[in-house]
Amino acid sequence: MANVKPYIALLKSRLSLTVAFSGTFGYLLAPVEHKPLDILLITLAGFVLTGAANIVNQLKEIELDKLMKRTAKRPLPTETLQPKQAALYGYGLAIVALGLLSYFTWKAAAIGLLSYILYGYVYTPLKRVGPISVFVGAFPGAFPPMIGWVAATGHFGWEPGILFAIQFFWQFPHFWAIAWVADADYRKAGFKMLPNDGKKDIKTAFTIMIYTLFLVPLGFVPYLMHMTGIKSAIITVMAGILFLCQTFYLMMRPTDKAAKWMMFGSFFYLLIMQIALLFDQV
Asked: DSSP labels for 230-279?
């Protein structure tokens, strides 16, 4: 069992489960019959694909992870696992995940492959370049609900597009709240993710607010597109407003404590939005 633990740690299970739920959310929201086995498979595909992308990220940042307190004890920096072992494991997982998505449709597998490449091979090295990494990382971060919808229906459209848009704009306050809180650690590794020259000030808080602002009107669009009912629209818009209020508080008090509350708020917003839409389908 001890030999299995490092491989489990590489998956970053909490993050992978969150992403997998977003994919399942998109799948369940689609107006088609949902078979229990298919629900299990789409969830497994999302979890495994995210885990595979996380492994690429860790393979490319072994030396950098050694510099940061929160990552120094991961399997690769501590040499609990060798890079070759992790690479074979990660590539195997990626093949399994893409195979599972192909079971539904090649379109879902294609988006999954793009997400894997963007996260592991584009976003990861850009973290040391500047906040452009957050923009690039927002794409794979927003793909899961689109993948779920496309897996269920077999086609693209405005519906998966709006699911993508909501989660895309959500990525910015989410990423930047984390980057604000972890700034000292990130600087040790040379990560430059905060906007406005990386300063934790009112200008950065204002930038975060602008991106969060988009979530308020976007929360009403699924109702306008007849995807869900008015109740979920009200709940989602209200959740967006409350999340936006956290950015105002960050502007008034640009502190780590306010950013941490906002980080937790981002998780609550995403969960509330997804549950509200799921339970209010038309």
From this structure: HHHHHHHHHHHHHHHHHHHHHHHS-SHHHHHHHHHHHHHHHHHHHHHHHT
